[in-house]
Amino acid sequence: TNILFLYNLELPFYYQFWFFITFSISFAVKFPMIPFHIWLPQAHVEAPLAGSVLLAGILLKLGGYGFIRFLNPLFPLAFEYFTPFIVLLSLIAIIYGGLTTCRQNDVKRLIAYSSVSHMGFVSLAIFTHSVEGLYASILMMLAHGFSSSGLFMSAGVIYNRFHTRIIKYYKGLTTAMPILSFITLILTLANIGFPLTFNFIAEFFTILSAYNYSWLVGVVSSLGLIISTIYALYFYNRIFFGVANNYLLV
What we know:
Helix content: over 70%
Radius of gyration: 19 Å
Domain NADH:quinone oxidoreductase/Mrp antiporter transmembrane: 15-223
Number of helices: 12
GO molecular function, one term: NADH dehydrogenase activity
Largest sheet: none
Pfam families: Proton_antipo_M
Structural class: mainly alpha
Strand content: under 5%
EC number: 7.1.1.2
Enzyme class: translocase
């Protein structure tokens, strides 16, 4: 059970291959990584506010910690062998998670699918085999833990006020809830990696490590950032700007 002793073990590739698969599946479910992500949106929808905050801020990051702490040091040959496959899954998570987020009408489900996309950036950074990628993955997990948890708190405040999470019923909340509107704006800008935010540093190094790994991977991951900006600004604009919905005036 001594981690330093385990690091010094030189296992044959055959054993590394199967150990890597079993370990990575366990971490991928917790992460969550596509195709093991289906439980996350439903868990956030059904969970109370405190559960969503803990899930987004702490529990999801345990999978990323496992990737960093165990897979590469313990199974380096298998880590190298599976890198193209994991990078492909990460890119799918980034694009699929972003596009799926764009069509969500439930606030908590929207934030949950955005987490799938952001965790794709984390796994991509880990498997780029670079110091920048390692730093980026750690920074991204920390930054996402704060911004995503904050967005869930904002969603919880709105739900306690109006008793619905359906986005189409919201509009013009800036007038009714100006302080929450400002706080949510800061969290939304952080979530998309706006300059001067913690997320910006993490996403910058993630894209840098992606381009160093492959220009094609860098282009696809950059497209994921554009999609992330679209759904985040739509989320904020739809809820806080415009004329107040009649539903909210009842």
